[in-house]
Design goal:
This protein is of the alpha+beta class. The radius of gyration is 12 Å and the shape is globular. The relative contact order is 0.21.
């Protein structure tokens, strides 16, 4: 199975997926910490997370998968949502809460 197949399976088999640096308990960058806090504020206690620092192929492959250069990356219902800045904007507007409500 290719890296792209692995990523595709992960984002389609889980309702909420966050590709991040580190884990929700121990985020390894401020953006990943912010992304997990936003999800928690939206009531998502247990998102499926992938620590890109554990696998260089996934770390590079996820950037190609969404054509998005940065990590973290949020996927909801198999669709790419965005990174930490987009998550913050969507949270402030209420759009993220609405989207995540469809994933529970």
């Amino acid at each position: 199975m290719s890296t792209q197949d692995t990523i595709r399976d992960t984002v389609t088999q889980n309702k909420v997926v966050l590709f991040m640096k580190g884990s929700p308990q121990f985020p390894m960058c401020g953006f990943s910490a912010s992304a997990t806090q936003i999800l928690k504020a939206c009531g998502v206690e247990q998102p499926h997370t992938v620590d890109v620092l554990q696998d260089e192929a996934i770390r590079q492959g996820i950037k190609e998968y969404a054509n998005w250069p940065t990590i973290p990356q949020l996927y909801v219902n198999g669709e790419f949502v965005g990174g930490a800045d987009i998550m913050r904007e969507m949270y402030q507007s209420g759009e993220l809460q609405t989207l995540l409500a469809t994933a529970k």
